[in-house]
Amino acid sequence: MGGSGNRRAKGGEIRVKNKAIGLNFIDVYYRKGVYKAATIPFIPGMEAVGVVTSVGPGLTGRKVGDLVAYAGNPMGSYAEEQILPAEKVVPLPSTMYPVVAAAVISKGMTAQFLVRRCFRNYHMTMVEPRHEVLVHAAAGGVGSLLCQWANALGATVIGTVSTKEKAAQAKDDGCHHVIMYKEEDFVTRVNEITSGKGVDVVYDSVGKDTFQGSLACLKIRGYMVSFGQSSGTPDPLPLSALAAKSLFLTRPTLMHYNLTREELLETVGELFPCITSGVLRVRINRTYPLSQAAQAHADLEGRKTLNLLPNVRMGYTADK
């Protein structure tokens, strides 16, 4: 069972029987202690889709049988059932399969706030047609969605990948230029592609291995968005290092961009239509039973998933 045991939902809470559970690199960070869980032991997992099985007293707007999704806190989605704050879950459109939604909600909401709300350059505009964007791990779960979304907004998208297979996917996802970082220096190639100007914004989820190069790729008053560290935590950076080009640097998290119910609904209000309309394509090439969560983590860390939005599910088929 895991999760909530037999505890009943209290006021403001709902009990959810999970149908599909998302797998994310943040789960690895918590398991390894890179991010510190509030309590030990803990149940990992930051996103899931399930069916409401009970509703706390006095709660309106939710009913038993509703299909809902959530991403972010409280952690603990690696369980058959959960008790969640009702304000943290969103209704799932009837046109979306649970496995698709579980695989994409956290990554998709991350992509949404990164391209639509996090990057605000000195003209106070979000990503738009005149911008040049660099996306590291362009075939990754979030990277794939970032490339698709930035391309749909008209930006010129440059992506870095490690293999020819991933390069083909990045091209398919709207990358105008794909850099094989194991074969060529990405800073040199970005300089060539941008005629020495640099890019407006870098989306870097890799961390230590790319951080300094990412800063070098930016144009004057460029925007560095460091939102992950799959290769390790970047080395400390003196503030004066940003002065050479008057750079902006941010280390955002999804939770801080969905502090209110209104922000959450705004985010999924953009995300879900982009998926159902085909603007964003969700690829799923692998699923795991919950009992194989350890193997799922090993595959994710070993880059064996091709980052096609893998998810952990528990014996349910997508059409149920």
Automatic annotation (TrEMBL):
Pfam family, one: ADH_zinc_N
Domain named Enoyl reductase (ER): residues: 2-309
InterPro entries attached to this UniProt entry: ADH-like_C (IPR013149), ADH-like_N (IPR013154), ER (IPR020843), GroES-like_sf (IPR011032), NAD(P)-bd_dom_sf (IPR036291), QOR-like (IPR047618)
Name the UniProt record assigns to this protein: Probable quinone oxidoreductase
Any GO molecular function: oxidoreductase activity
SMART domains: PKS_ER (SM00829)
Assigned keywords, A-Z: NADP, Oxidoreductase
Domain of life: Eukaryota
PANTHER family in UniProt: QUINONE OXIDOREDUCTASE PIG3-RELATED, QUINONE OXIDOREDUCTASE-RELATED
